[in-house]
Amino acid sequence: MIVYPNIDPVALALGPLKIHWYGLMYLVGFAGGWWLGQWRAKRSNGVWQPEQVGDLLFYIAMGVILGGRCGYVLFYNFDYFLQNPLWLFHIWEGGMSFHGGLLGVLLAMVWYGKKIGKSFFQVTDFIAPLIPLGLATGRIGNFIGGELWGRASDVSWAMVFPRDPLQLARHPSQLYQFALEGVALFVILWWFSSRPRPRMAVSGVFLVGYGSFRILAEFFREPDAHLGFVALDWLTMGQMLSLPMVLFGLFLVQQGYHRYGLVDGVNLDDRDFLQKFKESQESTAGRNKKAANKKMT
Description:
single chain; 4 strands; elongated
């Protein structure tokens, strides 16, 4: 058994102000996503502008926070919510759901895509390779906070988590999820998206990869105490929510390659966007030139 590194969940205390490691991990994830987004935007051949990445991450953050909280309440604590509807707004008590956060981000991407004149899947294909970094830092935050631990085990690397009321040696499942949903998924998506792919394919690979890794990790993660196994004495809520992700992801990949193939190595919606952008710039330049000539006369 390995001794759990009992790290104070409060990284910095300034009087009544306490900065938790979990919050810092979110900041690290978003900062890393911003840097990677800048890198991808500069290599998008004009489809994305680096200055758009900051706005994009703002919408993602809002989707993660609002969707994550709503998902946790509705998916994992719906009965308690019915008894105490205002508990939805008790964000300071903790409780976030990845699947809820994902739905929140998807809604935010619909909104942002319309704002900048891009299709929904143009946006999601761009951001998909950025998400695993945030997942990785989030799982490190879970581990430092000593929460979301794994099932009891006698493996040599099992740990006793201080907040576990049973004080059993358990799988450090947060680190398993860090390695799978964070590191492995990042490598897969970064490699897959490093060359042009049909529209929806990158988003589909993300859904398949995350859903598969989450289903696997759930076999080592302790189910939520108030839910337990939701079916068959082994199926968890996380697995039940992840299975549709895998199936829908496979559908997106299939549709992407069969219906939205590349034309001369480019997605048609990217080509159309660049054409409209060029026409808009030419039109603006023409109006400015006419206005300048009018002033001269």
